[in-house]
């Protein structure tokens, strides 16, 4: 018989544990500061408490991010509207495409906020926000169907909050820009967004099997997300959709096998919309039948029970990890102090050795400084190379668009699609910088951790270095963009050249090159038919056709020239701006990391000096005073140990169950 599944720790238990840990650490820090003999032993407690409270807040308010992706007009926005039960929330008109990300998450009151880019004259200014009515989301987030450009160039993304049960379960739905479908910049932007997502919701419809661009995107998305869910829309319009699903599974097995086991959910947005209307009219039975027909109930259940639960598990595990790390430092302090109060032989020599090891970390020639210098240099080179490759990809996709598009489509769509590609370059670069800086921070910390943690080894009793010592969490990579788009976010507009065909000279310019061909054609017709009138008519018709074709070729050449010049101007702008930003940001963050470690090393040396002085004082203290101090220290160790053991049990429970129940509070 299968053993019963262990019960997962609830979110409330984990958050209560985090709150009690923060309170105890703050109380211990106040007590230590008030005791002259313990001066300086609480270094870093304030930062540890802040990190713990921040992590708990993220776990309490955080949601699993679902990036919704699909070709144009597959029903991405309609699917999000159906999931939240508001049919007209996001724009779904046939001639409207989403131009920026729209993030829909839980909030106690319905509201929408447009996040605006910084002014071009003040790129370092904080982003601006502007509350907007829900019915005006399209005005801020959609592409103008006439120009192909976003209606608002200053909008970075739109955030929507709704009091919807599905979102309250811990989900955030992100509608990705639909400009150009899953080709070019849209694909790159969606792939970059997946780096920070918990799941991919891929939307197709029942009209036909997966396209080549869809299969290619899914193959590239394999390593970007742990979870993929397929939604097949328009089941009410295409009766053959079951065969389409089977064919799609075959295509995935051949071209993107990582996704072949992903679940498929056939849905009808129309039935879901009718269900909402029936419920609003009080027809509850009809609403229930339409909801079951729509196919959204099993989709919502999976999103709630599987994806939201996994994200909750990770966030709760992070809270417990940060709490245990925060408890490790004061616990080690108190255990080492108890050893001193017990007048343990050899403790003074142990502290002096740790102090000497720290001294060796301070010179400019220290190994960790060399690792930081070479690591930051290598990171800059890696980011520069990745940026150049991204620009090559932008040029390749853009040149293919220029070479294959009709003049009208090229003039309307090319600037917007190029902007989406540039946005993808920024996001990819920021993701790469964030990963690289995290790796560099870990490498440098490891160079120092043995010595920094050695100062607390007596507290552990086993000499282990579990990352809970001073300097363990320097956190130089914070929330928000590492490399921010400044001038590159507001690209120059495409300049459309003009050519005057009017007037006598324009007419001659267009007609004369084709007169000879038209006359020859008329002569041939005359020889074949022996007619007088027919050759003239044929010559005139051929002249009109050739003149029109000449004008079309000239228009195509003009538009392609405009697009090529615009592409070159944009790439020149990026090449000018981004490399310098890469250097500045990596150097700045490396400097911050170096200063943080310098402070950690200096603080630890000061702490060791005070421990040594305290130990020497204890050697001269009376037995009665030592006994009282030992009792106080043992009580503090007991309180810290009790919390630590509770945290270890919570961590074990989260690991054993695989995921907590998000509905339990």
Describe the structure in your own words.
With 665 residues, the chain is an alpha/beta fold. The protein has helices at residues 11-34, 45-61, 76-84, 137-141, 165-168, 184-194, 212-220, 241-255, 269-280, 284-294, 296-341, 347-359, 367-404, 407-454, 457-460, 503-529, 533-619, 623-657; strands at 64-69, 97-98, 101-106, 111-116, 128-132, 142-143, 155-162, 171-175, 199-205, 228-233, 264-266. The strands form 2 sheets. It has a 9-stranded mixed beta sheet with strand order 5-4-7-3-8-1-9-10-11, sandwiched between helices. Strands 2-6 form a two-stranded antiparallel ribbon. Helix 1 packs antiparallel against helix 18 (623-657). The radius of gyration is 33 Å and the shape is globular. The model is unreliable at 1-5, 36-43, 454-481, 485-489 and 659-665 (pLDDT under 50).
Which SSEs are present, and which pair or pack?
Blueprint: H1 11-34, H2 45-61, E1 64-69, H3 76-84, E2 97-98, E3 101-106, E4 111-116, E5 128-132, H4 137-141, E6 142-143, E7 155-162, H5 165-168, E8 171-175, H6 184-194, E9 199-205, H7 212-220, E10 228-233, H8 241-255, E11 264-266, H9 269-280, H10 284-294, H11 296-341, H12 347-359, H13 367-404, H14 407-454, H15 457-460, H16 503-529, H17 533-619, H18 623-657
Parallel strand pairs: 1-8, 1-9, 3-7, 9-10, 10-11
Antiparallel strand pairs: 2-6, 3-8, 4-5, 4-7
Provide keyphrases for this structure.
665 residues; alpha/beta; nine-stranded mixed β-sheet; disordered N terminus; disordered C terminus
Concise synopsis of the structure shown:
The chain has 665 residues and is α/β, with parallel strands linked by helices.
